[in-house]
Design a protein that fits this description.
295 residues, alpha+beta, 2 domains, four-stranded mixed β-sheet, four-stranded antiparallel β-sheet, 7 helices, 10 strands
Length: 295
């Protein structure tokens, strides 16, 4: 009898132990999922995008930080584009009263469907009609060159040509209309600094030469740039100038304190070395002279 009692008690204890183990791992799993796991989401994502606007006979770009809403990457960039340019010499892409019926992305084609009344808009009579179309197409395909844009009016394709331009089929990117100028080393440095301040460390890292990447692996680079941002808090970029040498350039950048004490605004002066490699400019981060903060 006692032998069976021991077996029953032992079985009960084993059962209690198993239940506790199950409860422990269930609680741990739930806590892990609730507290420690951050599911990837574009809901609060910010991207640095290049927006194209018409200026004279070309498209010129503005760099914007865009909030991605509801996981809709292309639509968020399009909405930023139709807000208009910040440069006063650039033209608005679309009239202010334009109504958008729908915006969809299907199989690498972006469908932009305007209200049926839009066909009577002066937009279609503009001499720069093609450039305005390309400002939309080139902006939306800047990060994904393989994509195309299909314009619809009232849900229908436009059969007739407009200014001898056929928009019945999806339009692809046209690089020929983008204004191109010679890039110099100061452009690379300023672009690098802006990407860092926007925390696009992935893009900034690609501006470094191979030696810098060997010395500073990406995780180390991120930490350095976070410190760089912190060091420049309360300062804004003021002026920069460039000194040319045979195999490299030195770009000097000055930052000025936004609000100084007693009317005295501090300054940060730093020098960047940019190597010239096969007509390309690459930043040598190992040669960056430590920023000097002056009062």
């Amino acid at each position: 009898m006692f032998k069976y009692a021991y077996k029953i008690i032992f079985s009960i204890l084993i059962g209690i132990l198993l239940i506790n183990i199950i409860l422990f791992f269930t609680w741990t799993y739930e806590k892990y999922n609730d507290v420690y796991v951050i599911n990837p989401s574009l809901e609060n994502m910010k991207v640095t995008a290049k927006l194209y606007f018409v200026h004279n006979d070309n498209l010129m770009s503005e760099i914007r930080t865009v909030d991605i809403k509801n996981d809709e990457f292309e639509r968020s960039i399009f909405e930023e584009l139709i807000k208009g340019p910040k440069t006063k010499f650039f033209e608005n892409v679309l009239p202010e009263n334009v109504t958008l019926d729908s915006f969809e992305v299907i199989d690498d084609v972006i469908y932009i469907n305007f209200d049926s009344k839009f066909i009577n808009n002066d937009f279609f009579n503009d001499d720069n009609f093609y450039l305005h179309l390309m400002s939309i197409v080139n902006t939306l395909t800047d990060m994904k060159h393989f994509m195309k844009v299909q314009f619809l009016i009232g849900g229908e394709k436009v059969i007739e040509k407009i200014h001898e331009i056929n928009i019945m089929e999806p339009l692809k990117r046209d690089e020929r209309v983008i204004y191109k100028r010679d890039i110099n080393s100061s452009d690379i440095v300023i672009s690098f600094i802006e990407m860092v301040f926007n925390r696009r460390f992935d893009l900034a890292y690609e501006s470094l030469n191979e030696y810098s990447k060997q010395i500073y692996p990406y995780n180390v680079f991120q930490e350095m740039m976070e410190s760089y941002i912190y060091y420049h808090d309360g300062y804004q970029r003021n002026i920069y100038f460039m000194q040319n040498y045979t195999e490299y350039d030195i770009v000097t950048v000055k930052f000025v304190e936004i609000e100084g004490e007693d009317g005295n605004r501090g300054e940060i002066i730093e020098q960047w070395k940019v190597n010239k490699i096969d007509e390309n400019f690459m930043i040598d981060l190992t040669e960056l002279k430590q920023p000097i903060r002056e009062n």
